[in-house]
Amino acid sequence: MEYVGDGETHPSKLKWSHGPLSIIVHKKHVGLLGQWTVSTDHQDIQLLLEDDVVVSPHFYIFLKQAIDFYYINESNYDSRMFGLSMQHQHTVLGQRTGFSIRSIDKELNETGAPTFFKYQLLGTWGAVFFPEHWRAFLEWIATINIENIEEGCTPGGLLSAQWWVSRHLAERMWTHWFIRFVYERGWYSLYTNFPNREALIVSYRESGLNFNVTRRSMNAISRTSAT
Questions:
Q1: Among 103, 122, 168, 216, which is most exposed with the fewest C-beta within 10 angstroms?
Q2: Which domain, by its residues, includes 108?
Q3: Quick one: 156 and 115 in the same domain?
Q4: How does DSSP classify residue 5?
């Protein structure tokens, strides 16, 4: 848990009965980049949740079994898979600026489409990162000049580069750096493809930093077991 404070006071009234709790205090605003990359335990598998998402009642069971199957089980381990994503992905990775945005839903909803698939685009709603991949990213970004707008862009004018350019002056984002990082290495995440575009996590896309107006959730939350 992270919050901004003076280092002496903290939300001590918080009740947590599910294991050890560590509270990280930032004495100043560190932005999105700092929240995701500073003071985290890079030895563990990480699940990163923000305050505008809701998880399925089955999310923990799914993650535990998926981690056991894809990460801990050596016979299934794929060194190019950097983690898991609980969100429903709809964006085409190769979408380029100047073209209308299309969705991968049509391909995913065709008869015989897989329930799980590997996809290179990062999903930030309910992202799980394996420790060696996350450490490699942190070591890499420490060598990057984050003030250089061109270094944060993927080649070829991808849509993600347009997002990065439009937000560069407003805040320090981390997602575009990670997109470029995995693009160069050919890494990917595991996604789910449930019926009716259901997902293990949804964002309500409330008005604020990322959205000018409240747009509500794009997907329904999964109420059935994913296993």
A1: 216
A2: 43-203
A3: yes
A4: S
Alpha carbon distance 47, 127 (integer Å): 6
Q: How many residues does the chain have?
A: 227
- Tokens 């290179």 correspond to 120
Tokens 């060194």 appear where?
A: 79
Contacts of residue 168, Cβ cutoff 8 Å, sequence gap at least 6: 149, 152
**C-beta atoms surrounding 181 within 10 Å:** 19
Number of domains in the chain: 2
Q: Which helix (H) or strand (E) holds 119?
A: strand 116-119
Asked whether residue 116 falls in the same domain as residue 176, the answer is yes
Is 29 found in the same domain as 62? no
| pLDDT-flagged residues of the chain (< 50) | 7, 96-101, 169-170
CA 214 to chain centre: 20
Q: Residue 216 carries which side chain, given as an amino acid letter? A: R
Whole-angstrom distance, CA of residue 103 vs CA of residue 217: 16
Same domain, 26 and 56: no
Do 121 and 178 fall into the same domain?
yes
What pLDDT does 143 receive? 86
**What is the predicted pLDDT for the residue at 13?**
63
* Token pair in block for residue 83: 């983690």
Instruction: Tell me how far the alpha carbon of residue 19 is from its chain's centroid.
Output: 24
DSSP lists the bridge partners of residue 84 as: 128, 190
β partners of residue 189: 83, 119
Contact predicate 95/155, CB 8 Å? no
pLDDT of residue 82: 96
Burial class (CB in 10 A: 0-12, 13-18, 19+), 201: buried
